[in-house]
Amino acid sequence: MSGLHVRRFGDERAPAVACLHGVTSWGGHFEALAARLAPAFGVIAPDLHGHGDSGREPPWRIPDHLAHLEATLGVGPRAWLGHSFGGRLAFEWAATHPGAVERLVLLDPAIFVPPHVALLAAENARRERRYPSFEEAVDRRFEESQLHRAPRELVERELRSHLVEKDGSWRYRYSQAAVVAAYGEMASAPPPFTAVRVRTLLVLGERSYLPYDHLLEAHRDALGDLFQVVVVPGGHSVLWDALDETAAAVAAFLASPA
Question: I need a labelling partner for 9 at 20 to 30 A (CA). Which of 46, 77, 217, 235 fits?
Fold first, then answer.
């Protein structure tokens, strides 16, 4: 099992937070968050298999993603954070490594996506994303991710490194096949919430297209006082739509007494 390409931000001597991105994204998505967590925490942000500078070849099942993470990070940090599909993977990591995770941050996570929703998302992901110019790619990203209040300069700064120009078109650095496969994995049954009894911060986008209402009560009942929910403005991409509010909630949660 091959390792993943890893991006590190902040002081490597500081307590580390492993950050897992969602489908179509990459580890660089957490650079702005890392700047707000420094100097108290450093960030380790791998490019998931099929994304960024990591390998592309199948299989792309959840156990395969976890195996790549273990090959790269070992047991890894005590704090894990995941956005969207990365939230599902961080949750699965905590379930399969009992006692190894002390704090878990879930940013608008795709813990379980209803199959009919996952099918629509997978069919949509089959269409190749090609753009005639970088500016057009940024414009379209606001539509494709349903961004509500993200500063254009924030999105543009990140996409400067995540998009590449080839044969006169701009494209993202990910495998479409891996993305389609991930939507199928998100529709599979996750571990029970009782299997992940660790201190958990759940950050939800107020206008997110990804539902969590069908899971919230069961999650809260399973964790009790270990569970904290914060709702931030904007949609699913909370690190673009609500970077300041999300970063403040994450920093406070990580710094709070055990």
Answer: 235
